[in-house]
TrEMBL record:
InterPro entries from the UniProt entry: KH_dom-like_a/b, OsmC/Ohr_fam, OsmC/Ohrsf
Top-level taxon in the UniProt lineage: Bacteria
Matches recorded under Pfam families: OsmC (PF02566)
Coiled coil: none
Protein name: Redox protein, regulator of disulfide bond formation
Length: 141
């Protein structure tokens, strides 16, 4: 069972969360609510989690296919529902940039498999009503 402990450490809304491995994640509210930019906002962390979850899958799939990745990044942007509470993620865009000796078709397929089959974060967001669009850019080097 996963376990996270949250402790208020900075102002009203600056928190450190620590998991069972001792990894610390800093969190805060937005400035309009009194946050001080101490850490990421909880909803931003969902996008972080999506990028990380998908990336672990994509890199693992490509390595199994003997694709050589020299550089890798993902940019995630999202738009939340306006004027409602709770304000869920509505539209999410992910741009995967992969450099190396990688076949474009394999990279595209790895992203598709991750988001539709393996990445629990992606499936959770989609079940909550979000749409996830992707763009995969492969640069051979």
């Amino acid at each position: 069972m996963a376990k996270v402990i949250l402790k208020r450490v900075s102002g009203d809304y600056g928190f450190d969360t620590v998991n069972e491995n001792g990894t610390v994640v800093k969190m805060d509210s937005n400035p309009e609510m009194g946050g001080t930019e101490y850490g990421a906002r909880p909803m931003q962390l969902l996008l972080n989690a999506l990028a990380g979850c998908a990336s672990i899958d994509v890199i693992s799939i490509l390595k199994k296919q003997r694709q050589e990745i020299k550089d890798y990044s993902v940019t995630v942007t999202g738009e939340r529902e306006a004027g409602v509470e709770p304000s869920l993620w509505k539209e999410i865009q992910m741009v995967f940039e992969i450099t190396g000796n990688v076949e474009e078709g394999k990279a595209q397929r790895a992203v598709e498999i991750s988001l539709n089959k393996y990445c629990s974060v992606a499936v959770t967001l989609v079940k909550a009503g979000a749409t996830i669009q992707t763009n995969v850019i492969v640069r051979n080097a």
